[in-house]
Amino acid sequence: MYINLFWSNTKMNYYDFLVIALKLLVVFICIILFLKITGKTSLSQMSSIDFIGNMILGGIAGGIIYNPKLTVFDFLVVLIMWTAIMYTSNYLKKKSQNAKAFIVGNPIILMESGKIKLDAFTSVNLDFSSFAVLLRMKNIFTIHAVDKAILEPNGQLTVVKKGDKDISVLVLENENPNEDGLKSIGKDEDWLKSKLAEQGYANYEGLYCVEYYDERLFVIPSELVN
């Protein structure tokens, strides 16, 4: 028995609908597994590259569902390839600060010491009214109360109000020095090495991350991370 779809001249039988239903089920399960493998199960965890990756994944899924010439096996092959690409990008982000900056981006300082950086606003295509909205979402209703404002790579705004202590800065992550973090506090790698030596660390080996806060370094060794 054929069913004539009213929006097209295509005739489909019950077998065709069964195939589509099975494809939907397989695609649904595969997407859940993909999100678990890449570790991105919520929108708040996603960077711009993750969002683009999920859009492409949706296109791949749509192609397999609506194109009868493509089989579930074709979808699995493409999905494995795309998962490998996303997994590799996530691995590179963890191992290289340069790769992380290229893939995810760096935080952008919009205000510092109460002064507005117009070049930073221009670089991220952010107008002042949108910035004011972001401040109100942080329960800050006047720009004069802001000492420092940072636009994070995920689009969130971090704000330090006047009179508050500055935020912490990661100066080392996964045994790799964070040059941008060091630059933001006016330090260099030689300073980092000397400060770590004072705490008994001859090199970066075995250091998961190092945080700079309130003019002090806080070291988290890899052995303390499960």
TrEMBL record:
This protein's name: DUF421 domain-containing protein
Topology term for the membrane: Multi-pass membrane protein
Family listed: Belongs to the UPF0702 family.
YetF-like N-terminal transmembrane domain location: 18-92
Domain (YetF C-terminal): residue spans on this chain: 95-212
Signal sequence coordinates: none
Regions that span the bilayer: 14-35, 47-66, 72-92
One GO CC annotation: plasma membrane
Keyword Transmembrane helix: yes
